[in-house]
Amino acid sequence: MGPADGLRGRAGRAPVRGRASGRGSRRIHLAGRLEVLPDSTRDALKPAAESTRDSEGGFHLNIAIGYDGREEIVR
Fold first, then answer.
1. Cα atoms in the Cβ-side hemisphere of radius 13 Å centred on 35
2. What is the pLDDT of residues 23-37, one digit of tens each?
3. Would you say the pTM of this structure is higher than 0.70?
4. Percent helix, strand, coil in the chain (nearest 5)?
């Protein structure tokens, strides 16, 4: 069981279903202000994203928290 599997219990079901749910075929991207999330949510999302970082192709889930793009524009 990997970190991404831990998110299933939080939502009551697997976050990815259907054809893209095969092993190595999903990737979680986090953007924005994760510090505004409750610690338990942030502690579940960060390792889930890290564990899927090297996955290519398949399903990509982008999660933007309090995201307005300002940081990317300034850089």
1. 1
2. 557 899 998 889 999
3. no
4. 45, 20, 35
Return the SS3 of 51: helix
CA pair distance 21, 32, nearest whole angstrom: 25
What H or E segment, with its residue span, contains residue 26?
strand 26-32
For the chain, domain boundaries: 3-74
List the structure tokens of 65.
């928290």
> What percentage of the chain exceeds 90 in pLDDT?
35
User: Which of 56, 49, 50, 47 lies closest to 23, judged by CA?
Assistant: 56
Point out which residues pair with 62 in neighbouring strands: 29
3-state SS, residue 16: coil
User: Is 71 within 8 Å of 35 (Cβ atoms)?
Assistant: no
